[in-house]
Specification:
The chain has 234 residues and is mainly alpha-helical. It has helices spanning 3-32, 45-50, 55-82, 88-116, 124-140, 142-159, 164-186, 192-233. Helix content is 82%, strand content 0%. The longest helix has 42 residues, at 192-233. It starts with a helix and ends with a helix.
Length: 234
C-alpha cells in the first residue's frame, strides 16, 4: 500500500466516528418526517391502529428509528471517550456518561420492542397497555440522556479535550434536558410557555450531536491538513 493510500485510510478512520453524529442526525430527520412513527411524548394509539394494517411500512419505520438510536449511542460513547483524561474526576464523569448512554439505549430498545408489538395485532386492551408503556419509556429515556450531557459537558470543561464553547454548548443543552426531565416526570400540564419550551427542547435533540459532530470533523480535518503540510515541508 502506498503512503498516500495509507494516509487516506487513516484519515477515513479518524473521521468515521465523529461522522456518526451527522449521519445519525440525518436518520433522525427521516424519523421526524415519518408521518406515522411516534416521537418523544407522542401517544402510541395512532401507531397501534396504523401498524397492523401497514406492517411492511411499519417495519421499515421501526428499522429507521433503530438505526438512529444505534448511531446516536455510538456517537455518545465516542464523545465520552474523547473527553476522558487520566485524572480521577474526568474518569469518573466518563464512567457515569457511559453508563447513562447505555441505560438510555436499553430504554430505547424497549421502545423499539413496544413499537414492534402492534404490527402483530392483538386485543385492544393489550394495545392500550403497550401504548401506555411506550409513553412511560419515552419519558424515562429523558433522564439518562440529561445525565449523560451533564457528565460529558463537565468532563469536557475540565479536560479541555474539545473547544470551551462546545463544552458550554453541551452544558446548555444538558440544562434544557434536565428541565424537560423534571417536567416529564412530574407530569406537568402543557401551557403556551411550556409548548414553546417543548420546541426548544425538541430542536436540541438533533442540535447537540449535529453541532458536536461537525465541530469534531472540522478539527480532525484541520489536524490532517496540518500533518500534510508538516510532511511536505520535511
Amino acid at each position: 500500500m502506498s503512503q498516500a493510500a495509507a494516509t487516506a485510510t487513516r484519515t477515513i478512520g479518524r473521521l468515521a466516528m465523529p461522522a456518526t453524529g451527522v449521519v445519525g442526525t440525518a436518520v433522525f430527520f427521516l424519523v421526524v418526517f415519518s408521518p406515522n412513527l411516534p416521537m418523544y411524548g407522542d401517544s402510541l394509539s395512532d401507531w397501534g391502529r396504523w401498524a397492523p394494517i401497514h406492517q411492511s411500512a411499519a417495519r421499515d419505520a421501526v428499522a429507521i428509528l433503530l438505526l438512529a438510536y444505534l448511531l446516536y449511542m455510538v456517537f455518545g460513547v465516542y464523545v465520552a471517550a474523547l473527553v476522558r483524561r487520566s485524572d480521577p474526576t474526568t474518569a469518573t464523569l466518563v464512567q457515569v456518561a457511559t453508563v447513562a448512554i447505555a441505560v438510555k439505549f436499553a430504554i430505547e430498545m424497549m421502545q423499539i420492542a413496544v413499537l414492534a408489538v402492534p404490527e402483530t395485532g392483538g386485543s385492544n386492551d393489550f394495545g392500550g397497555s403497550m401504548a401506555q408503556l411506550g409513553s412511560v419509556l419515552s419519558v424515562l429515556s429523558l433522564v439518562p440522556f440529561a445525565l449523560f450531557l451533564v457528565a460529558v459537558g463537565v468532563s469536557a470543561l475540565i479536560s479541555r479535550a474539545v473547544p470551551a464553547w462546545l463544552a458550554r454548548f453541551t452544558l446548555a443543552v444538558a440544562a434544557i434536558h434536565v428541565f424537560a426531565s423534571v417536567l416529564g416526570l412530574a407530569g406537568v400540564s402543557a401551557s403556551p410557555m411550556l409548548v414553546a419550551f417543548g420546541f426548544i427542547w425538541f430542536a436540541s435533540i438533533p442540535a447537540w450531536p449535529l453541532v458536536t459532530s461537525v465541530a469534531l470533523l472540522i478539527a480532525a480535518l484541520r489536524r490532517h491538513g496540518m500533518a500534510l503540510r508538516v510532511a511536505a515541508a520535511s
